Every structure is written in structure tokens, then in C-alpha cells.
From TrEMBL:
The lineage of its organism: Bacteria, Bacillati, Actinomycetota, Actinomycetes, Kitasatosporales. The keyword Hydrolase applies. It comes from Streptomyces calvus. Belongs to the carbon-nitrogen hydrolase superfamily. NIT1/NIT2 family. GO terms for molecular function: hydrolase activity. The keyword Nucleotidyltransferase does not apply. It comes from the Bacteria. This is Carbon-nitrogen hydrolase. It holds the Pfam family CN_hydrolase. SUPFAM superfamilies: Carbon-nitrogen hydrolase. Residues 1-239 form the CN hydrolase domain. Keywords: Hydrolase. InterPro entries: C-N_Hydrolase, C-N_Hydrolase_sf, UPF0012_CS.
Length: 266
């Protein structure tokens, strides 16, 4: 399987409409790939909180339409990163869209873990409540977004749902880049799955982005890693090796679930 991670630069000197058109062209340039992945909130920037409400779209809004057409023209599966979505009742979500090679909307994931603690995304956006997997020819994708990477139980749930390849678009800050690499490798090792983690380049609302999109195999080996700037990171990997890895080193079978909470001694 050939995957292309588009590490898009998000900067304030480019309008959302211009960037949407430019990124659609980048997707079309990946004809021949099997899967193309975009970053989190690449239309606005993950830290451009003040723009979320103004730039929020309905689920089948302009980014949906542009990415559906680009996926169809390129003939690729497209994880179109995420966009600020406004649902019919007015709630905002950080929403990922996955398209088939025919341009059909194959899956929708609303980010479960919102970043910001008591500000930013955590208070401006609603939380999703559904794990999402997508069956492709040859593998099952498990879908997560950025801050989700810090919550291993989410990925266990995806593995239990059949995921073999974990796809994580992000707008990860440069100041915590070491966590990005470490956690991507940890999620690969503990779940014995491929990890495709696609970040942004540039600066969002004054926050320099880490870049360094990364592809990790089920043993935690880095197959490919981008630099800090806008880049297309393309890698060939064999998703059928997941089953073999889990069979040869069957750690997932030794999980112990449903443990009682610890008690306090007297």
C-alpha cells in the first residue's frame, strides 16, 4: 500500500479559500497512491481559535465538496484531515472526513478529546462520542485526531473494532515535538499496528507547528519522517504484516480487562 501524508503549511497570509484550492491540487497530484492523509484543521489552523466560528462549515460544505472531487479525480482513498464543522443545532465540532476513490463520503469522525483544558478547542467545540473505523482494500483504518494520541484507551478500542492502521491528523506544536514522535511510536508498539501521523507546518495564531509527519510500523520502527516544512511524505508499507506481527508476538492476547479499582490499605 502506498500512502502520501500531505504536511500542509498553514499561514495567515493565505486565505482559507486559496488554501482549500491549493490542497485539492496537492491531492490530485497523488494519483497512484492508495491513501492520502491531510492534517488537522488545515483550513483554519489548529490554534486559530478565533476563526473557528467564522470558518465553520456544514458537514457537506465547501471543504467536503472540494475534497470529494479531488479524491475522485485522483482515484485515492482520502482522509481529508479535519475541519471546523457546525452541525444543524449550531454546535461546533472538530470533524474528520474520509472519502472513497469514487468521491463518496465513507466516514465521519468528530474528535473525542478536545485540547485546551479550560480554553480554546475544549470550550469552543463539542466532543464526539463514537469510535470510527474504515475498511479499505487490504487494511482497516482506525481514525483519531491530534490530542487523542495521548489517550491509549481510545486506540485499544479501535483495535478491538478491527483497526490495523491508525491514522492521526494533527496540528501539533513544535514545543512538544518530542511527545509527538514518542507517542506515535508507543501507539504503534502497544497496538501492533501501523501509525500514519500527519501534522501541519507553518505557524497557527503565533504557535509554530512541529511538522515531522511520521509513519511507524507495528514494531515501532520509523519507516519515514518529514522535516519541519511543507512536504509530501510518501511511503510504501505492507498492512498484511500486522496479522503476522500479532501472531508471532501475541501480546494483545494477554490483556487483562475489568480489573477492580485499587483499594486503600488500613
Amino acid at each position: 500500500m502506498r500512502a502520501s501524508l500531505l504536511q500542509v503549511a498553514v499561514n495567515k497570509d493565505e486565505t482559507v479559500g486559496s488554501r482549500r484550492s491549493r490542497v485539492a491540487g496537492m491531492v490530485r497530484d497523488q494519483a497512484g497512491a492508495d491513501l492520502v492523509v491531510l492534517p488537522e484543521l488545515w483550513t483554519t489552523g489548529a490554534f486559530a481559535y478565533e476563526d473557528f466560528a467564522d470558518e465553520a462549515e456544514p458537514l457537506r460544505g465547501p471543504t467536503h465538496d472540494a475534497m470529494a472531487a479531488a479524491a475522485r479525480d485522483a482515484g485515492v482513498w482520502l482522509h481529508a484531515g479535519s475541519v471546523p464543522e457546525r452541525d444543524p443545532d449550531g454546535t461546533l465540532y472538530n470533524t474528520s472526513l474520509v472519502f472513497s476513490p469514487s468521491g463518496e463520503l465513507a466516514a465521519v469522525y468528530r474528535k473525542i478529546h478536545r485540547f485546551g483544558f479550560d480554553k480554546g478547542e475544549a470550550v469552543l467545540m463539542g466532543a464526539g462520542d463514537t469510535l470510527v473505523t474504515v475498511r479499505l482494500p487490504g487494511t482497516v483504518l482506525g481514525v483519531a485526531t491530534c490530542y487523542d494520541l495521548r489517550f491509549p484507551e481510545l486506540f485499544r478500542g479501535l483495535v478491538d473494532a478491527g483497526a490495523e492502521t491508525l491514522v492521526i491528523p494533527a496540528g501539533w506544536p513544535e514545543r512538544r515535538r518530542s511527545h509527538w514522535t514518542l507517542l506515535a511510536q508507543a501507539r504503534a508498539v502497544e497496538n501492533q499496528a501501523f501509525v500514519l501521523a500527519c501534522g501541519t507546518a507553518g505557524t497557527h495564531a503565533g504557535v509554530p507547528q512541529a511538522g515531522h509527519s511520521i509513519v511507524v510500523d507495528p514494531w515501532g520502527e520509523v519507516l519515514a519522517e518529514a522535516g519541519p516544512d511543507e512536504q509530501v511524505l510518501t511511503v510504501d508499507f505492507d498492512p498484511t504484516t500486522v496479522a503476522g506481527t500479532r501472531d508471532r508476538f501475541p501480546a494483545l492476547k494477554d490483556r487483562v480487562l475489568g480489573l477492580d479499582r485499587p483499594t486503600t490499605g488500613t
